[in-house]
Amino acid sequence: MSTIDEVKARIDIVDLVSEAGVKLRHAGKNYTGFCPFHDNKHTPAFVVWPESGTWRCFGQCNEGGDIFKFVMKKEGIDFKEALQKLAARAGVEIKEYQRETPQQREVYDTLRKLLEDAVVFYRSHLFANREILAYLREKRGLTDATIETFGLGYAPPGYDNVLRHFIQRGVKEQELLDAGLLSEREDGKRFDRFRHRIMIPIRDENGKMAGFGARIVDPNDIPKFLNSPETPIFSKGRLLYGLDRARKPIRAADQAVIVEGYLDVIALHQAGYENVVSPMGTALTEEQLRLLKRFTRKIVLALDPDTAGQKAVLRGLEAARSAMDREGELRFDARGLLRNEARLQADLRVASMPDDLDPDEIVARDREEWKKLIENAKPIVEHVMVSLAEGKNLNDRRVVNEIANQVLPLISDLPTPADREFFTQRLARFLKVDERAFISAQAQGPRVRRPRQQTEKRQPVEKSTLAVAVSSSKLVEEYVIGVLFRKPELLYRLDRQLQEYGLLPLNVQDFDFTDNQMLFGLIRESVEQDKTEHHTFVAEAVPESLLGLSRDLLAQTEKLERVEEKLLEELLRSVIKMRRVTAGENLNQLRFLQEEAHQAGDLRAAPYTELVLRNTKLLRDLDQAYRKMSQKRLE
Question: DSSP letters along 137-202, please?
């Protein structure tokens, strides 16, 4: 049993939720109460399932999860902190978080010393190559002092330059591999990881060497940027490039600016804007925001033009999340950023870059222009409003309704009534409509279309050709995650097959358990990027808190069906099982809530009716897909 499973087994979710101040009462096998995450106290739409150890709100939140998700949301902490807190409560020791031993510290110091020596090696090759130096000086506008300050270097072409250089100096191959300077093929042959690239040393916030970022010289090479692999001292999800030099300027300015590229950071520092950092070329994480919060609560995202456009804005909204989320770039997720802003009590703003220019190009064009762009950065909600309206006719009522329908859910996510009122007024003025219309729409609760009939007949419960015990749902989830962890490339084919059967692609909401949700997010991200082999990407990106689970899942799926078509069929069958379990649970509980609301004369029964119809249709679609699968197999 993994540490996470042991914690789940020892903690009763009903006790946990009750101790958090939620008054629960029996509703058959389950418990219901008022949701602790929003203000509605009219209808007890919060449900706890003791058997599976999960919860869900059928009201305004429309969220759910397990004990970890509940504590994360209730206390505004991340998964690692929630695991530590609940493990302490359950009396479970978390070995992954034991303090660094002297032996480990010695190993880490050895890796850092090796990386420092690699900085010198790459630097010597840079100053021996006039062409690369000319590129940095003339094309990127960097001075020799800046090149020296940031320790830029050059990895020469060839597969054994680093290998031969350090082996001759008595360094072992395994040490070079552990430091991320070598890669290893399946046949065990080792070779230089970085070749014919500009080398950018990456240090942690204390200035200690952690790894390298490497940019292509030949425009035909891929990927454009290549980072060190995950090592004991290099973690993409935690490090921020330039923070070692930006710490004091961030404190002095009481503001941090996040850009996308390492060379953007360097150019801005050279221009005097030293409160600038960059993530490791992947999505911005909550851990990185928490790291910045040590120095300031004011954070500006300076997004490149292609990221800050309408598609990127929509990427954070509910309607487009499944289609556009998980890009291998600094992802703009409006809803996610708002939640982080509330949890961290930070002030997050967005500055868009004009004229299709990158930050380094803007500061090269006009140094003062950058200052004005950052000063004019907009709050997230306002940025979404402006971006959605760009190029649109605001005199067209349909356009106004479309924008309002996408921005109002974001305003509802804001943590305080004052913020919600302020941005509701701001949206009304921006769209030139009466604010009372928005207040009325928000007061109706969940944005679910009400049926025309006020009195509905109860829908008959569909008998399914497919039955799965609720207690098996966790095993099914783990099977799906385990297979996709080992073979992430199957996800695209799985999505296509689901769509062929009239079903939505697999998404994070299909999983009830927080650890599985986090791993699925990495799997989805792995297939959306093209910089690293998919399985390697996932394995390198797994956070420390999930390493034990990931090893268990890989062990469980070690002997998979070798025929991919059969494996894909089993995956598809498992996803249908997962969805049917969830839809069945939801349907049973919604009927109870619907009946209870009717008896109390509560007009909010109408949204429950719509959800009942939706889940009934989903069950029917799932059973139809299952029958089609069975027929196809017999043909």
Answer: IIIS---HHHHHHTT-EEE-SSSSHHHHHHHTTT--HHHHHHTTSEEE-TTS-EEES--SEEEEEE
Count the Cβ atoms, other than its own, within 10 Å of residue 99: 6
Residue 322, Cβ density class (10 Å: 0-12 exposed, 13-18 middle, ≥19 buried): middle
- SS3 at position 355: coil
Write b or e for each residue in 276-287: b if 16 or more Cβ atoms lie within 10 A of its Cβ, otherwise e. Answer: bbbbbbbbbbbb
Residue 405, CA distances (Å) to 246, 400, 438, 441 in order: 39, 9, 10, 10
Q: Which residues contact 443 (CB under 8 A, 6 or more apart)?
A: none
Instruction: Give the residues across from 199 on adjacent strands.
Output: 153, 214
Place of tokens 């067209």: 396
Q: Which residues of 250-260 are buried (b: 16+ CB within 10 A; e: fewer)?
A: beebebbbbbb
Q: How high is the mean pLDDT in each 10-residue block of the chain (635 residues)?
A: 80 89 82 82 80 85 88 86 89 62 78 96 96 94 96 96 96 95 92 96 93 93 91 90 94 92 95 94 76 86 59 39 33 71 78 87 94 93 88 89 88 80 90 75 42 36 34 78 90 91 90 90 85 81 81 75 78 90 84 73 66 87 85 67
CA 425, CA 42: separation in Å to the nearest integer? Answer: 26
Half-sphere exposure of 601 (CA within 13 A, CB side): 0
Condensed to tens digits (0 to 9), the pLDDT of residues 564-608 reads 788 888 899 899 988 988 888 888 888 877 777 676 665 556 667
**CA–CA distances in Å: residue 170 to residues 12, 161, 194, 346, 632:** 56, 15, 21, 49, 62
The separation between the first and the last C-alpha atoms of the chain, rounded to the nearest angstrom, is: 41
Tokens 């799926």: give the residue. Answer: 557
Per DSSP, the residues of 215-237 read EESSTTSS-SEEEPPPBTTB-TT
- Would you state the structure tokens that stand for residue 453, as one six-digit string? 């009939």
Q: Which amino acid is at 243?
A: L
CB 331 within 8 A of CB 283: yes
SS (H, E, C) 368-430: HHHHHHHHCCEEHHHHHHHHHHCCCCCCCHHHHHHHHHHHHHHHHHCCCHHHHHHHHHHHHHH
Measure the CA–CA gap between 498 and 354, rounded to whole angstroms. 40
* pLDDT (tens digit per residue) in 522-564: 999 888 877 678 888 888 888 878 887 888 788 777 766 666 7
- What is the reported pTM? 0.55
